[in-house]
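Task: sequence design from structure.
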């Protein structure tokens, strides 16, 4: 099956996110939705849901990113337009990094079961040490 292209993400997705916070020795889980909406030749992704860490009350959470097609694949920016990372969906193991000194964010995407897909972030820094795995399925 060919790798997804930007427009293949358009629409609504359910998401399930697991967070392993090694620095705080705790686990969290988010359930919610991701909506990829056309905007200015790309897609705006709005994630919203409920996040709960063991032993703490659940809280509402949301974030937005902007996805654009590029000659090399897909570029992802923060909601305010600042560059975040880019990746090539057709790579055997699509991956990217975001340096946010003093922290380092590494992501690996998995499209092998498209349209179900996964993004796994590994974040390290002086006060950060966690793995965040998100699974997306068509709504």
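Answer:
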């Amino acid at each position: 099956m060919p790798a997804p292209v930007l427009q293949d993400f358009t629409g609504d997705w359910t998401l399930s996110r697991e967070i392993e916070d090694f620095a705080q020795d705790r686990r969290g889980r988010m359930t919610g939705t991701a909506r990829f909406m056309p905007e200015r030749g790309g897609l705006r992704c709005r994630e919203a849901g409920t996040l709960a860490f063991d032993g703490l009350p659940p809280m509402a959470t949301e974030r937005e990113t902007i996805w654009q097609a590029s000659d090399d694949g897909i570029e992802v920016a923060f909601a305010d337009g600042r560059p975040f990372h880019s990746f090539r969906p057709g790579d055997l193991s699509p991956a990217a990094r975001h340096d946010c000194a003093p922290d380092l964010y590494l992501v690996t995407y998995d499209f092998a079961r498209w349209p179900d897909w996964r993004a796994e972030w590994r974040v390290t820094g002086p006060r950060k040490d966690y793995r965040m795995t998100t699974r997306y399925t068509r709504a």
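The beta strands are 11-21, 26-39, 42-53, 59-70, 73-78, 83-87, 95-100, 103-110, 117-124, 129-138.
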